[in-house]
Amino acid sequence: MNRVTMAVAGIGMLVLLLVASSSLFIVTQGEQALVLRFGAVAYPEDPVMGPGLHVKKPFIEEVVRYDARLLDVDPPAEQVILADQKRIEVDTYTRFRITNPLLFYQAVRTEEAARARLREIINNSERRVLGSAMLPSVLSAEREQMMHEMKDQVADAAKSLGVTIADVRIRRADLPPETSQAIFRRMESERQREAAEARAQGAERAQQIRAGAERERTIILAEATRQGQIQRGQGDSEATRIYAEAFSADPAFFAFYRSLTAYRQALGESNTTYVLTPDSDFFHFFSNAPGHH
């Protein structure tokens, strides 16, 4: 084989390889493809190519691939005014799948364009659903029902794009920072007012308890004094009775005993000087004592 024949064979091989590379294409497991001819679907009767090796007409047909897996839309957080005129900041995310590649191509062509359309649909649904809800409902278990309602609305609107909505979730629903600070300050003032009221009530109750205790103390002391006076009176009466009985039993001894008591009190350990006449009644028993002159 001469060089010319070899060159022609080589060129032929290159042409065959070029034609083969332009005619054959592979669709992977996570993809789905459309074959287009001059911008239109080449095979309308069976437009979607599934996973595997496929053939197309070289140079005049092109392949558009779409992801067959679950895709996401993560729009920026939006401020929404609720039915009670509260303003909240809502952060959502959505999961979708391209289920009709032909309709998808005709409606939006690219995934980025589809995401832009879905963001508008999601924001509109978000404002409709949350705009008729109160803040306590958004922050409670009722939010789950709101997410289902949003998903249904978004799914209905997204059918025209050739996509199926798998889920719409509210990731976060918070008050804007400035509103949160105002509410925090209001709550702080309310708690301070409640604390001051509780302290005032406690002080009033403490004063009532102290007054009650003081009243009880006065009553107890008065009762104790009364009982003491009664006991002392009874004791004095009993002592008087005993003295009277003792005096009537032996008046002379009783007079003698009383004089001794008086001597002890007057002449005991005191340095007091008494000036009395010898015949005073105070020295009656001294003057009548045996051996006295």
Give a summary of the structure in a few sentences.
The protein is α+β, with helices and mostly antiparallel strands and 293 residues long. The protein has eight helices and ten strands.
Describe this structure in words.
Strands 2, 3, 4 and 6 form a four-stranded antiparallel β-sheet that branches. Strands 7, 8, 9 and 10 form a four-stranded antiparallel β-sheet that branches. A hairpin with a 2-residue loop joins strand 2 (31-37) and strand 3 (40-41). The chain has 293 residues and is of the alpha+beta class. Among the domains are: 3-67, no CATH class; 71-175, Tetrahydropterin Synthase, Chain A (2-Layer Sandwich), CATH 3.30.479; 257-267 and 275-293, no CATH class. Helix 3 (111-130) packs across helix 5 (143-158) and helix 6 (177-249) packs across helix 7. The termini are far apart. The longest helix is centred in the C-terminal third of the chain and has 73 residues, at 177-249. The protein contains eight helices and ten strands. Helices cover 55% and strands 19% of the residues. The model has no long low-confidence stretch (mean pLDDT 82).
Major β-sheet profile: 4 strands, antiparallel
CATH top-level class of the domain at 71-175: Alpha Beta
Termini gap:
190 Å
What is the 3D form? Answer: rod-shaped
Radius of gyration: 57 Å
Descriptive keywords:
single chain; 293 residues; alpha+beta; Tetrahydropterin Synthase, Chain A; 8 helices; 55% helix
Secondary structure layout plus pairing:
Elements: H1 3-23, E1 24-27, E2 31-37, E3 40-41, E4 48-49, E5 52-55, E6 61-67, E7 71-73, E8 78-81, E9 87-98, H2 101-107, H3 111-130, H4 135-138, H5 143-158, E10 163-174, H6 177-249, H7 251-267, H8 284-287
Antiparallel strand pairs: 1-5, 2-3, 2-4, 2-6, 7-9, 8-9, 9-10
Helix pairs in contact: 3-5, 6-7
